[in-house]
Design goal:
Blueprint lengths: L12 E6 L4 H16 L8 E6 L5 H15 L5 H10 E5 L22 E6 L6 H10 L7 E5 L7 H12 L7 E3 L7 H12 L1 H4 L7 E9 L8 H26 L8 H13 L6 H7 E11 L2 E3 L2 H5 L9 E6 L11 E6 L6 E8 L17 E7 L3 E9 L8 E9 H4 L7 H11 L8 H21 L4 E5 L18
Parallel strand pairs: 1-2, 1-4, 2-3, 4-5, 5-6, 7-11, 8-16
Antiparallel strand pairs: 7-12, 8-9, 8-10, 10-11, 12-13, 13-14, 14-15
Helix pairs in contact: 1-2, 1-13, 2-3, 5-14, 8-9, 8-14, 9-14, 10-14
Bound molecules: 6-O-phosphono-beta-D-glucopyranose.
């Protein structure tokens, strides 16, 4: 990997992470800070304060960071890692207790021009109490920003309550509701692809597109997050945020300028146009599933119930939905959303299936495959345009579909920053374009609540699928359509 070469502004911030010793902090947030320090976008003077309930001393804290970060940041330089550890401080707090942040001030800079970034990487049920404690300890400055990890609540009502509690102390321009999918390079490329290439935008509508498929498939199971996951399931963990955000970027109208509120206004319109899924629709338009034992990469893996150590659970680890956006551009075009754990492989992909030609002039020829634009988001990063071409040879016309492939990864030699790196810097510079506004979150909950309530009322059961498969057998959602695999 080559180093980034573009010149950057140097940012100074005090970064305070609630849930500082948690999985997300150690696996994603601290490595993101590491790389931004290394590429000189964050100033060496930054401070990082990790807050947790664990009772550990300074030495244990530093040892833990050093072991974990060395394991996660594969190409870490010893010097840069020890610098990061040297700017990290530990603060022990039980966040449910009033006054728990009263001693935090001594660890922060008092200068007004430093951005205080409060990162809430704990259960959203604690967000209200943390915010009150921050206020009581007089830690909220005009330059403070708060980052809220998802899921924000477990339904529309709880999400509204949390948003309101935070809005008592922070204004909307200080609140950053993070969805790390929006920080992925290939996801941002969706906007560039759509709004710089006239070729696509002219065909981007119900007249030319037959259906759109969005798949986020994972081969991992729930790991050590079983306690959390069993309360949420795939619908809340993945669809409410990541898949809906991907769908928004595919479906929005072109914003007239690239400004946070203009982009978010357009996304909101898409979310508000989603057709609610009532009890009848839920039986034909949704599938939920749960993984059983199976084989992945040649190894036996446990079932979901074994992973969470329970005898029974109704939680879904797979969801597929046929969604419709009831507006002029997308009338009648199904959007198939699909996500699951313990599937055959990790890959995220968007497939735009264009309509087939109206009439085949080649006599006796085999049927023609429709054009497809396949956007591979991860782990491969590429764009494929599937087109039919003539098979060389004399006599008659034979043809077959061939992909024109743009390999995003090998077209750009620089290192692709991880999603959290981009998003952290956006928070510090106050750019909210890639973060969700309150009304957007509310609109997505409204649609998700319609599905959840319909599932409960209709008592829709999970279909079991073997780990390592492609999900429940009959998840093909529309008559004669198939998932692009
Ligand atoms: C998180 C979910 O938001 O996204 C996890 O909570 C999921 O369950 C993860 O595994 C997937 O993210 P990525 O970046 O690995 O696709």
């Amino acid at each position: 990997m080559t180093k980034e070469t573009t010149s950057k502004k140097l940012f100074l911030s005090d970064i305070i992470i609630f849930g500082g010793l948690g999985d997300l902090s150690l696996r994603k947030i601290l490595p993101a800070i590491y790389y931004r320090l290394q590429s000189k976008q964050l100033s060496n003077e930054c401070k990082v304060i990790l807050i947790s309930r664990q009772d550990i001393n300074k030495k244990e804290f530093e040892d833990l960071l050093s072991v974990k970060l060395e394991e996660i940041i594969k190409d870490a330089s010893k010097k840069d890692l020890s610098h990061l550890i040297s700017i990290c401080e530990y603060y022990n707090a039980d966040l449910t207790q009033k006054g728990c942040l009263n001693n935090l001030k001594s660890l922060l800079r008092s200068v007004d021009n430093v951005v205080r970034l409060f990162y809430f990487s704990v259960s959203s049920s604690l967000f209200g109490s943390i915010t009150k404690n921050l206020k009581e300890a007089q830690l909220i400055t005009p330059k403070s920003r708060v980052v809220l990890e998802k899921p924000l609540g477990h339904n529309g009502e709880s999400s509204k309550k949390i948003n309101n509690e935070i809005a008592d102390y922070f204004n909307e321009s200080q609140i950053f509701r993070i969805d790390h999918y929006l920080g992925k390079e290939t996801v941002q490329n969706l906007m560039v692809l759509r709004f710089t290439n006239n070729l696509y935008e002219n065909a981007w509508n119900a007249q030319n597109i037959d259906n759109i498929q969005i798949t986020v498939s994972e081969n991992l199971g729930v790991g050590n997050r079983g306690g959390f996951y069993d309360k949420y399931g795939a619908l809340l963990d993945m669809v409410q945020n990541h898949l809906l955000q991907l769908m928004c970027l595919v479906a929005i109208e072109p914003p007239n300028i690239l400004d946070a509120n203009t982009v978010r206004d357009e996304k909101l319109k898409v979310l508000k146009s989603l057709r609610p899924i009532d009890i009848d629709l839920c039986k034909t338009h949704t599938v939920k599933g749960q993984y059983t034992r199976g084989k992945l990469d040649g190894k036996e893996v446990k079932s979901y119930l074994e992973d969470i150590d329970k005898f029974s659970s109704d939680t879904e680890t797979f969801v597929a939905i046929r969604a419709y956006i009831d507006n002029w551009r997308w009338a009648g075009v199904p959007f198939y959303l699909r996500t699951g754990k313990r599937l055959s492989r990790k890959h995220s992909q968007i497939t735009i299936n264009f309509k087939n030609i109206p009439h085949n002039i080649f006599p006796g020829g085999k049927s023609i495959v429709n054009n497809k634009l396949i956007i591979n988001l991860q782990p491969e990063e590429s764009i494929e345009l599937v087109q039919t071409v003539k098979t060389p040879g004399p006599g008659g016309y034979r043809y077959k579909p061939i992909s024109l492939v743009l390999d995003y990864g090998s077209s750009f030699k620089e290192r692709f920053p991880e999603a959290y790196e981009r998003l952290l810097i956006d928070v510090i510079r106050g750019n909210q374009t890639l973060f969700m506004r309150k009304d957007e979150v509310e609109a997505s909950w409204e649609w998700i609540d319609s599905i959840n309530e319909s599932w409960t009322k209709s008592n829709l059961k999970n279909q079991l699928y073997s780990s390592g498969s492609n999900g429940p057998g009959d998840h093909i959602l529309l008559d004669n359509h198939e998932w692009n695999e």
